[in-house]
Amino acid sequence: METHQQIINMIFLFSYLFFEILAASSGSYYIIKNREDKLSRYFVYFLWLTFFIELFGTIPSLIYYFDLFPYLKGTFLQRNHWLFNIFFIFNFSFYLYYFIRNYSSQIFKRIMKVILIIYVFTSILNLILTDIYFTAVSSYTYILGTILIFIGAIIYLFETIQSDKVLAFYRTLPFYIAVGSMIFHLVVTPLFIYGQYYNVDKSPDFVTVRKIILNSAIMILYILYSIGFIVCAREEDIIDKIKKDN
User: Fold this and answer.
1) Which of 179, 180, 201, 207 could staple 224 via S-S, CB 3.0–4.6 A?
2) How far apart are CA 156 and CA 174, in angstroms?
3) 7-11: Cβ within 8 A, 24+ apart
């Protein structure tokens, strides 16, 4: 029974890493096809960074569920809150930065840049002034970051609808990133909030359901990103073919 449960935990633990690699690899293929798109290049680097952070972040699960690395028990590596408290600030900030770079309106750009700076400053201040850094993921960083992603993505989609881009929205990479990030955080944020009150000891059923929903959300997110990269890469192939024919 224990071995069966360990297999299930292993599947949950590493299945999302597969989809992260899929998206990052698809992105690498796209930026090879389109070397001039520097912003997308940064986004692909961000995806690879996310993968390695998530991979490193599996250490506490390997210790808890599989009794691996027993010599790490009692050290700061037994928990990964410190790692993700830093990474989530960078994660949400990068998404907002990405959307800002895709805005057409200078007013929106200025406003959101100021909001981004305030978010980073206050999130770091929250980690310094509270004892949350090593004990849990900061609700302030995560929930406010989610709200900013929604605002940032909605502004981008609003501008797209108001412009000629709407005629070919499905061939633009920011569209897939905006939709994917909004769906993901819409699903995951409630799990994050409730997950602070229910753990494997208090409610094992909730933890299992949470894993299923979280993995499904991650799968949808990175499949959307992969589709976006592939569609945009094919678009580049068509453009290159037209140029050669001319």
Assistant:
1) 180
2) 8
3) 9/61, 9/65, 9/66, 10/65, 10/66
Question: pLDDT digits over 127-160, tens only?
Answer: 999 999 998 999 999 999 999 999 999 999 999 9
Q: Which residues contact 76 (CB under 8 A, 6 or more apart)?
A: 82, 134
What tokens does 197 get?
């009150």
Separation CA 115–CA 102 (nearest Å) = 16
Side-chain-facing half-sphere of 246: CA atoms under 13 Å: 6
Q: Do 92 and 119 form a contact (C-beta atoms < 8 A)?
A: yes
Cα separation of 186 and 172, whole Å?
A: 22
Q: Which two tokens stand for residue 201?
A: 């000891």
How is residue 98 written in tokens?
């990405």
Contacts 24+ apart (CB under 8 A), 196-201: 196/136, 196/139
Q: Give residue-wise pLDDT tens across range 51-96.
A: 999 999 888 877 766 677 777 777 777 788 899 999 999 999 999 9
Which positions ≥6 away from 75 have C-beta within 8 Å?
Answer: none
CA dihedral 38, 42, 47, 52 (to 10 degrees): 130
